[in-house]
Amino acid sequence: MEIDQWRREYLHGGLQRSDLSADPISQFDLWLQEVVKADISDPSAMCLSTADASGQPSQRIVLLKGFDARGFVFYTNLKSQKAWDITANPRVSLLFPWHFLDRQVIVRGQATLLDGAEADQYFASRPRESQIAAWASHQSDAIVSREVLEKQFETFQAQFEGQDVPRPEFWGGYRIVPHAVEFWQGRASRLHDRFVYRALDDGKWQIERLSP
Questions:
Q1: Which sites bind substrate (predicted)?
Q2: What sign does the dihedral 13-44-175-26 (CA atoms) show?
Q3: Cα(178)–Cα(198) distance, integer angstroms
Q4: How distant is the alpha carbon of residue 166 from its chain centre?
């Protein structure tokens, strides 16, 4: 079968206005719990979209590390491509591609840098090997070979032997403060259900149904 004929019907159910929570964070939490119950790999994986100063977009998969009424949190090297993009243009988008439930969640918002104390707390909870890898990798920089990377890892492994690994000053986190969150539920015949929450000035959310 040719690629343009690959398709299937989306039959996992529908989404009605009466099903929705009053705010998108509560609705996201509800859907995330259902994803976790589905027992799939990387339920917190999300596609982060950024754009540099010229407008060139980039995308990559990162892991959600927390969320609450303030927004969605992830961590990274602060000298990576994504960090440079955010410095130039803090407007970003997140996509949670939960295809196995015929669902997507799209978050549009602004990235803000977390304070050092919050980054320290999360960094201390990471596996030791991941902490050392944060020191060893100059994320997004070109390297000659994998052997160079492994040598850097061994160097920092020896440097921090017998002591706690501190958080590098070039490593931290971002919180995506949302102004719009869309919940997409696939339906048969491509008549999908789409609802978007839009932030209002008074702190409340307006909910609209979108045409598929």
A1: 65, 122, 126, 130, 190-192
A2: positive
A3: 9
A4: 24
**Active site (annotated) includes residue 103:** no
DSSP string, 158-212: HHTTTSPPPPPTTEEEEEEEEEEEEEEE--GGG--EEEEEEE-TTS-EEEEEE--
Between the alpha carbon of residue 86 and those of residues 83, 137, 144, 162, the distances in Å are 5, 20, 27, 36
The active-site residue, picked from 103, 190, 198, 209, is: 190
Per-domain residue ranges for the chain? 3-126+175-210
pLDDT score, position 1: 80
Is 63 annotated in a binding site? The answer is yes
pLDDT score recorded for residue 64: 98
Q: Can you give the pLDDT at residue 188?
A: 95
Determine whether the annotation assigns residue 140 to a binding site: yes
Q: Which fold has domain 3-126+175-210?
A: Pnp Oxidase; Chain A (2.30.110)
197 is an annotated ligand-binding site residue? no
Write out residues in the chain with pLDDT < 50, as ranges: none
The Cα–Cα gap between 135 and 106 comes to: 32
Could you give phi then psi for residue 17, rounded to 5 degrees?
A: -55, -35
